[in-house]
Reticulon-like protein (Linum tenue), 254 residues
Amino acid sequence: MADHVGHHDSLVDKITEKIHGHDGSSSSSSSDSDDDSKPSKVDAVKSKIYRLFGRDKPVHKVLGGGKPADVLLWRNKKNSGAVLGVATVIWVLFELLEYHLITLVCHLSILSLAILFLWSNASTFINKSPPQIPEVVIPEKCILEVASALRIEFNRGCTVLREIASGRDLKKFVIVIAGLWFISIIGGCCNFLTLFYIVFVLLHTLPVLYEKYDDKVDAFAEKAMIELKKQYAVFEEKVLSKIPKGPLKDKKKV
């Protein structure tokens, strides 16, 4: 009888342990599921945050990564400063001092050739080795890659212009016309070199500032985009909707 009672107690204990184990595993699994759901909730919140130009990557990745992005974002201050300094010197020479490109190239070539010529001939008298002049050869593959990239971009631009001229996308037409008009105003205020230098300086200042204050800039840009969409909706209703559009599809040949 005692053995039977002891066997019954042990059976009850085993059942109790299984129940507690199941509860523990279910609680742990529920906690794991809660932990798994936390990142998804965070990702959902991040996806709702407005980012300028719809970016979902860091600014460094958006700029292509590598050394060019490092220069634009001032990862190495010496390299970025050197690039900006060289651009500033070129702008000062051609714009402020009114130096001509052909004159500058000829003077630099004369100076370089004279120094190398004198050094090569004087090396025998001063017991020093002559200068090691490197052999500069542009590989054919590099030229072909650049030409191919330019061809692709040119064809893409021609396709976009053709779509705009066909009258199928009125919104894109208005944006391009406004952009060209704005560029024409800037071009009337300064020449090409100054405009190029301004763009170059902006490329070396705006990305690094945006990376530092991206949250504030994105919040301001979101409000600005909402306001622009409202104004465009009013403009489209009052003006663009009354303009006849071109055919949406090309007519089939019979």
About this structure: The chain is about 75% helix and 0% strand. The CA atoms of residues 46 and 112 lie 57 Å apart. The radius of gyration is 34 Å. Residues 1-8, 22-39, 41-45, 249-254 have pLDDT under 50 and may be disordered.
